[in-house]
């Protein structure tokens, strides 16, 4: 027995899930702490207010902070246990015993509250110390300069104007250029779907390309991402990541709308995708909106804002190349581009940590954990589609990359996180896309783009950003 102080109970009130990092000498252990309040209603009594379990699933390492919870009740509806359902392969893990019906066992920890302080039992007498308590962010970060759309979505769309199907929401969001509204609508649609207020998937035609209220420049003109050392360089990096997250929101909604009636079975051509296809991609859309909001907020905290630097829409080229087939879309967007994110994120996180920017580091870590689950979703639905069409998933993926991607898949690969998402090396090693690149740089003509191009020539970063900010102020579309 070795109870270690985690935090004051009050500090844990705002979120129901926290990740607690403990250290003793050179050893670390990480635990997810679930707070169970809200379950004591209608005479139902929970047996414990807190549960704690090791942070990674003993099967293949999924972060259990993202597990969904299910209650086990006895005959008189007392809650006798809580089951965590792993987000990767849906194994069940008892939060009391750690046991799973699949025969694996996770480590669980007793949690006690004494005098408004929460303690965790580390199972040994060594002087473990809690070094970090992080809320599992389900929170969107509001803009410091323009918080209204997030708070008042009903100002922009009244309940009687709201779409009634999930694909109508998808199309509305895809056609909404304003990032704040895109986040607000995504959040609203997610609440309605999870709350059972949207039950119909429906049919709706998504736009060919989601509009932007910021003119897009060629990727080569979008500025260097920076090495992450100076403040300006970190801003440039976060800005370029925010742009990718904004496209990622659209990509998740597009896979919902465009393939809602994907026929998988030639014998039953009207077959539709099952419900968990939609809930999985809705979760991805919600995560991407959260990611954008976190990055946009960080930019503001660092003295900049989203839109201060030029952005590009190159990611949508791959969406266009794959709009004809769900298997192509899953392969290129979710198992090539999103998996590439897993490879590069750790180095980016390390740069921010080395520069002492711990707030951005935390944001990027949150994003990275979520991104593993997005690649998992791509893998899961790729397997589903291949099974229904009697195709070998790895062979099919490799063929899709050859047909719909140009260039070699570049390493170094984050084999651990790829593996967690279901991608063994056989999927991606020695793989070369053979598609002819159709990318054509467009001529820079507009006043704004010329100003941005001029600004990018400037070697003084401070002047560069001021110049762009000033330019955008006067030429906002
Ligand atoms: S069930 Fe948790 S990682 Fe596989
Ligand atoms: Fe993301
Ligand atoms: Fe993602």
Task: Describe the fold and architecture.
- This is Rieske domain-containing protein.
- The protein has 477 residues and is of the alpha+beta class.
- The protein folds into two domains: 3-135, Rieske Iron-sulfur Protein (3-layer Sandwich); 148-474, no CATH class.
- 42% of the residues lie in helices and 14% in strands.
- The chain has 13 helices and 13 strands.
- A hairpin with a 6-residue loop joins strand 6 and strand 7 (92-94).
- The longest helix has 31 residues, at 358-388.
- It is globular and about 65 Å long.
- The protein starts with a strand and ends with a helix.
- The model is unreliable at 440-477 (pLDDT under 50).
- The site of one fe (ii) ion has 6 residues, from helix 5 and helix 8.
Model regions low in confidence, pLDDT < 50 over at least 5 residues: 440-477
- Proportion of beta-strand residues: 5-15%
Mean pLDDT: 81
Instruction: Give the structural class.
Output: alpha+beta
Region (Disordered): 200-228
Domain Rieske: 17-120
InterPro entries: DUF455, Ferritin-like_SF, Rieske_2Fe-2S, Rieske_2Fe-2S_sf, Sol_Rieske_ferrdox_dom
Protein name: Rieske domain-containing protein
Q: How would the blueprint of this fold be written?
A:
Layout: E1 3-8, E2 17-24, E3 27-35, E4 50-54, E5 68-73, E6 79-85, E7 92-94, E8 108-109, E9 111-114, E10 117-121, E11 129-135, H1 148-151, H2 166-174, H3 179-194, H4 231-258, H5 275-301, H6 314-321, H7 326-354, H8 358-388, H9 393-404, E12 406-408, H10 415-420, H11 425-428, E13 432-434, H12 447-457, H13 461-475
Antiparallel strand pairs: 1-10, 2-3, 2-11, 3-4, 4-8, 5-6, 6-7, 9-10, 12-13
Helix pairs in contact: 2-3, 2-4, 3-5, 4-5, 5-8, 6-7, 7-8, 7-9, 12-13
Residues 57, 59-62, 86, 88-89, 91 line the site of FE2/S2 (inorganic) cluster (FES).
Keywords: 2Fe-2S, Iron, Iron-sulfur, Metal-binding
Protein name: Rieske domain-containing protein
Region (Disordered): 200-228
């Amino acid at each position: 027995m070795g109870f270690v102080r985690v935090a004051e109970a009050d500090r844990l009130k705002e979120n129901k899930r926290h990740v607690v990092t403990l250290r003793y000498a050179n050893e670390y252990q990480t635990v997810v702490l679930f707070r169970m309040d809200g379950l004591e209603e209608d005479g139902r009594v929970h047996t414990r207010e807190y549960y704690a379990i090791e942070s990674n699933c003993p099967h293949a390492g999924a972060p259990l902070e993202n597990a969904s919870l299910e209650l086990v009740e006895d005959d008189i509806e007392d809650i006798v246990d809580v089951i965590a359902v792993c987000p990767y392969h849906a194994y069940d893990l008892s939060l009391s015993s750690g046991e799973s019906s699949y025969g694996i066992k996770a480590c669980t920890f007793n949690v006690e509250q004494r005098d408004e302080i929460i303690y965790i039992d580390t199972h040994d007498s060594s002087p473990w110390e809690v070094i970090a308590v992080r809320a599992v962010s389900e929170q969107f970060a509001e803009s410091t300069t323009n918080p209204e759309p997030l708070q008042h979505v009903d100002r922009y769309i009244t309940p009687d104007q709201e779409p009634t199907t999930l694909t109508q929401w998808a199309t509305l969001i895809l056609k909404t250029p304003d990032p704040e509204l895109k986040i607000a609508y995504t959040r609203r649609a997610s609440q309605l779907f999870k709350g059972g207020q949207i039950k119909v998937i429906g049919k709706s035609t998504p736009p060919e390309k989601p509009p932007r209220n910021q003119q897009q420049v060629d990727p080569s003109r979008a500025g260097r991402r920076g090495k992450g050392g100076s403040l300006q360089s970190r801003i440039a990096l976060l800005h370029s990541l925010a742009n990718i997250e904004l496209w990622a929101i659209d990509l998740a909604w597009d896979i919902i709308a465009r393939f809602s009636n994907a026929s998988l079975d030639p014998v039953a051509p009207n077959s539709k995708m099952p419900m968990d296809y939609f809930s999985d991609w809705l979760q991805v859309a919600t995560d991407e909106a959260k990611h954008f909001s976190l990055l946009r907020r960080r930019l503001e905290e660092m003295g900049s804002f989203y839109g201060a630097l030029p952005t590009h829409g190159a990611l949508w080229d791959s969406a266009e190349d794959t709009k004809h087939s769900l298997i192509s879309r899953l392969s290129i967007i979710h198992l090539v581009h999103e998996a590439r994110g897993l490879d590069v994120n750790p180095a980016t996180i390390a740069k921010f940590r080395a520069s002492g920017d711990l707030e951005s580091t935390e944001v990027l870590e949150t994003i990275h954990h979520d991104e593993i689950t997005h690649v998992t979703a791509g893998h899961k639905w790729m397997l589903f589609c291949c099974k229904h069409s009697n195709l070998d998933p790895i062979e099919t993926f490799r063929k899709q990359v050859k047909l719909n991607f140009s260039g070699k898949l570049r390493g170094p690969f984050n084999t651990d996180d790829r593996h967690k998402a279901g991608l063994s090396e056989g999927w991606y090693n020695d793989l070369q896309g053979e598609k002819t690149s159709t990318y054509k740089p467009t001529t820079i003509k507009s006043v704004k783009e010329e100003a941005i191009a001029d600004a990018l020539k400037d070697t003084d970063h401070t002047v560069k950003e001021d110049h762009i900010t000033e330019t955008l102020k006067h030429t906002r579309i």
